[in-house]
Amino acid sequence: MLYKEEIDSSRIPQHVAIIMDGNGRWAKQRGHERSYGHQAGAETVHVIAEEAARLGIKYLTLYTFSTENWNRPSDEVAALMGLLLDSIEEETFMKNNISFQVIGDIEKLPVNVQQRLSTCVAHTLHNTGMCLVLALSYSSRWEITEATRQIATLVQKGELEPGEISDELIEQHLTTHFMPNPDLLIRTGGEIRLSNYLLWQCAYSELYFCDTYWPDFREEELRKAICDYQKRERRFGKTSEQIS
Fold first, then answer.
1. DSSP letter string over 166-189?
2. What are the CA-CA distances from residue 183 to residues 22, 63, 113, 235 (Å)?
3. Which residues pair with 103 in a beta bridge?
4. Strands (E), 51-142
5. Could you tell me which residues are beta bridge partners of residue 207?
6. Shortest CA distance to 94 belongs to which of 48, 61, 50, 156?
7. Could you tell me which residues come within 8 angstroms of residue 29 by beta carbon, excluding any fewer than 6 positions away?
8. Residue 240 confidence (pLDDT) above 70
9. Is residue 162 within 8 Å of residue 31, measured between CB atoms?
10. Is 101 helix (H, G, I), strand (E, B) or coil?
11. In angstroms, rounded to a whole number, what is the distance separating the alpha carbons of residues 244 and 174?
12. Going by C-beta distance under 8 Å and a sequence separation of 6 or more, which residues neighbour residue 136?
């Protein structure tokens, strides 16, 4: 039976976050440079975004480029930036009624990339379907540090008392403040770690790891992950009896 037939459409996760891993290894297995894998991975983004929108997922957040990725060889970083420019197709967003957002230390990106991203965000602002979020020049430690600085500044100015700092206040200062925390986090490529991704937000997310490299991750793989998610009992610290 296909996973498509097993999915309960009434229990689709509202927010799915994905660590898209395995592009380089996928390319190496085929005797190509890493950039070949990144190109194939960019095509997978379009496939998965369209399927996620069809399934009724409200937010899809993709770990596209971490702050640590700036340490990669300069030619690979340049190729990734060029690929990013080429792969942002507003037609795909408009056709699928998808809005577009970006989280991360965007000011570190090349100016032409920043401008392209801003234009796409503005042009898709009024789309009412799924929101596709790219985490670019992003790391969770950077994000939490920035939120802490903002809150400390408010305290220093006398606009906030230390006792007023709460979970809710911290979340308001995170780059993800405009969306709910992920219900499901998927990592492809066989690694089993979070790699500094949405650490605060994934405190109670369901985690799903698979060996499939990102370029080979297709619609049925996403459906499989969602079916696995739907078999789990989300208790958030409570007992089964309390949530039944």
1. -HHHHHHTSTTTTSPPPSEEEE-T
2. 23, 16, 30, 12
3. 135
4. 59-66, 99-103, 131-138
5. 185
6. 50
7. none
8. no
9. no
10. strand
11. 32
12. 64, 65, 84, 102, 103, 104, 106, 109, 117
CB 101 within 8 A of CB 132: yes
Question: SS3 of 73, please?
Answer: coil
Inter-residue contact 133 to 101 (CB < 8 Å): yes
Read off the tokens for 217.
Answer: 């991750």
- Point out which residues pair with 131 in neighbouring strands: 59, 99
DSSP 129: S
CB 83 within 8 A of CB 39: yes
- Contact call for residues 165 and 132 (beta carbons, < 8 A): no
Contact by Cβ (8 Å): 230, 11: yes
Question: What phi, psi does 97 have (nearest 5°)?
Answer: 60, 35
* DSSP state letters, 189-223: TT--S-TTSSTTTTTT-EEEE-S--GGG--HHHHH
**Whether the Cβ atoms of residue 214 and residue 26 lie closer than 8 Å to each other:** yes
Q: What digits encode the pLDDT tens for the residues 107-159? A: 999 898 999 999 999 999 999 999 999 999 999 999 999 999 999 999 999 99
- pTM (two decimals): 0.93
- Residue numbers annotated as active site: 21, 69
CA torsion sign, 140 to 218 to 192 to 228?
positive
The owner of tokens 């965007």 is: 106
What's the DSSP call for residue 146?
H
Output DSSP code: residue 162.
G
